[in-house]
Structures are given as C-alpha cells and as structure tokens.
Amino acid sequence: MCHPTVFVVDDDPGARNSLVWLLESVRLVVQTFDSGEQFLKEVDEKQSGCVLLDLRMPGMSGQAVLAELATREISPPVVLVTAYGNVSTTARAMRTGAFNVLEKPYDDQVLLDTLHEAFQVDQRNRAEHAQRVVVRARLALLTPRESEVLNLIMAGMTNKAIASQLQVSIKNVEFHRANIYQKMQAESLAELVRMVLSLGEPNAT
C-alpha cells in the first residue's frame, strides 16, 4: 500500500528542513518544493496525501496555488500556514478550498493531528473520484436513445410519460430502461439515481 505524502511548499529552506525533521520523526513521507510554481508543475496528482502550503511566497502565493488546485478534479487537501493570520485571510482560504489554516507558530501536535485528518479526507475524496470514473465509463456505454431515456428517468418521469414524450410504446421504454439498468449495473431506481447524482454535474448523462 502506498503511504500518503505530505507535500511541503515553502520558499524558506529553514522552514522546510524543520518540517522535514518533524514529519519524518513520526515516519511520515515528505516531499518538498521551494515554490508554488514548482509544486504545481511537479506534483503527481495520483499520489495521495495532503499539502502543507505557506501563504506568503515570492512569485505564486499560497492563495494562488490554492485557487489553481481548486480547478482540478482531484487534488490533495491543503493545510495553509501563515504568520499573518486573520479572519479575512482564513475565510478567503476556506472559501477557496483550504482544508484548514494554521497560524505560525503552531503547536507540533496540532499540526500532526491536522495532517492526519487531511489524509482521511483525501482518502475519502479519492474513493469518491474513483467511483465517478466508474459511473462515467458506464454512462459511455449507453446509446443516444438510452441516454435520452435516462435523462427523462432522472427528471422523475414514468414509463408512460416517457413513452408519450418520445412517441414510442411503453414496451420500447421498458426495453431501454432494462438496458440502462444492466449497463449501469444498478439494482434499483434509487441506486441508478444515486450513481448519476454522484457526478455532481449538470447534464451528466
């Protein structure tokens, strides 16, 4: 099993070395970056873990890195650290998607506890992402007509109403509906709806 990694992003070599010493002392895997640009360029998004990100850095700020990560479908949770913490900074970071904000100087145990909580969130996020990939692959198997029927099912329409709208027989709708259940590997309407809604996307079908 691949161990989660703490991605430390800080332009201060002393701060990076101190964090590496602390994190490795409790047997955590650490990877360091001296800038936000380097981190975004080199980080492997498939690697589970979390980001320990300094807010104020030359070039790309921690807030800018956070905003870029928010545009990606899957990215590790971010713990933002700052010596200039205030309500406005914290609120902005949380709105942009930060998992937590810690003010320097922070207690080592509080940091470690926060990182372990972030690991759990990352694990859950990646499991949900993997499920979305599976659902999309199943949706891709549907014919255009089956996708059309599925959209109407998602709209809450009955077989009779779907048949009327598509101007086909109820048996025809039932045939397409059975194919949809089979291809989506859904045992019930509730399971089918839950799969589609898990994508969290408009017009997912």
Topology (elements, then pairings):
Layout (H helix, E strand, L loop, with lengths): L4 E5 L3 H13 L3 E5 L2 H7 L6 E6 L7 H9 L7 E5 L4 H10 L3 E4 L4 H32 L4 H11 L4 H8 L3 H15 L4 H9 L8
Parallel strand pairs: 1-2, 1-3, 3-4, 4-5
Helix pairs in contact: 6-8, 7-8
Describe this structure in words.
The protein folds into two domains: 5-130, Response regulator (Rossmann fold), CATH 3.40.50; 141-197, Winged helix-like DNA-binding domain superfamily/Winged helix DNA-binding domain (Arc Repressor Mutant, subunit A, Orthogonal Bundle). Helix content is 56%, strand content 12%. It has helices spanning 13-25, 36-42, 62-70, 87-96, 108-139, 144-154, 159-166, 170-184, 189-197, and strands at 5-9, 29-33, 49-54, 78-82, 100-103. α6 (144-154) packs across α8.
In short:
The chain has 205 residues and is an alpha/beta fold.
**Terminal residue distance:** 34 Å
What is the 3D shape? elongated
The helix content, as a percent range, equals: 55-70%
Query: Which blocks of ≥5 consecutive residues have pLDDT under 50?
Result: none
Mean pLDDT across all residues, rounded?
91
Structural class: alpha/beta
Q: CATH superfamily of the largest domain, please?
A: Response regulator
- Largest sheet data: 5 strands, parallel
- The total of beta strands comes to 5
**What is the topology, as strand order, of the major beta sheet?**
2-1-3-4-5
